[in-house]
Amino acid sequence: MSASTAVLKAEARLIGRNRAGVFWVVAFPTLLLIILGLLPTFRAADAALGGLRMVDAYVPALLLAVIMSGTQVMPGFLISYREQGILRRMSTTPVRPLTLLTAQIVLHAVVALGSAVLVIAAGRLIHGVSLPRHLPGYVAALVLATLAALALGTIIAAFVPNTKLATTVATIAFFPLAISAGLWGPVQVLPEIARRIIEFTPFGAAAQALDQAMRGHWPDWSLLGVTALWSVVLIAAAARWFRWE
């Protein structure tokens, strides 16, 4: 077994033991969609949404799993490792800290994307929500949003000195990101100026790209470009500022 594979398996076990994190990233978005879909107002067609039901427009809120993974869960792991000196000790072994960081990003990306699949499946089976009609565009927007979220999580881990403060910072970061992704209401029903502003945020652009793919269209290149640009900038910033000790 290679060192990278061993680290990947060990981190997978540790992530699996974090029951609270698994619940909020994997189970909560699906439960939220199921509960909201039971409300009469969410099951009625809405002219403002082009005839869709509110529950149909809430499927792109699967970005909730991506945002929570990036802001709430992964930074806690990295900060605790640095706080306990684990990364510093690893630097003296053949397994470099970068291997651990890569394993964390890969595993959290898999968990977040798996949660997204679960949300889509639950929406289809329980509430009859249509599957994404343009699957390649949907996957492209979702992957870009996941990269942006995990890069943001690495930046939080770079600047927050301890796990206690990480909870506060993660909560402050979570709410505006969730609002821009449409968690508190579909972006489509917002005033024009608000939609234009949200289009320049990573998860606002991703949410609108996901909505277009759900309707059967390749997402606007401008929306994918905004999400991709945020991903590149955040990844570059994470690489520049993250410290192992």
Q: What does this protein structure show overall?
A:
With 245 residues, the protein is mostly helical. The protein has one domain. It is built from twelve helices and no strands. Helix 2 (19-37) runs antiparallel to helix 5, helix 5 packs antiparallel against helix 7 and helix 7 packs across helix 8 (135-159). It starts with a helix and ends with a helix. The model has no long low-confidence stretch (mean pLDDT 84).
Key phrases:
245 residues, mainly alpha, 12 helices, elongated, transmembrane helix
- The topology string of helices and strands comes to HHHHHHHHHHHH
Distance between the termini: 28 Å
Question: What sort of overall outline do the alpha carbons produce when their principal axes are compared?
Answer: elongated
Count of domains: 1
Helix content: over 70%
Q: Detail the poorly predicted runs.
A: none
Class based on secondary structure composition and strand pairing: mainly alpha
What is the total tally of β strands?
A: 0
* Main β sheet profile: none
Strand content: under 5%
Oligomeric state of this protein: single chain
Précis, in short:
The chain has 245 residues and is mostly helical. It has helices spanning 3-17, 19-37, 40-43, 54-57, 63-83, 86-90, 97-127, 135-159, 163-180, 192-198, 202-214, 221-241.
List the helices and strands and how they pair.
Layout: H1 3-17, H2 19-37, H3 40-43, H4 54-57, H5 63-83, H6 86-90, H7 97-127, H8 135-159, H9 163-180, H10 192-198, H11 202-214, H12 221-241
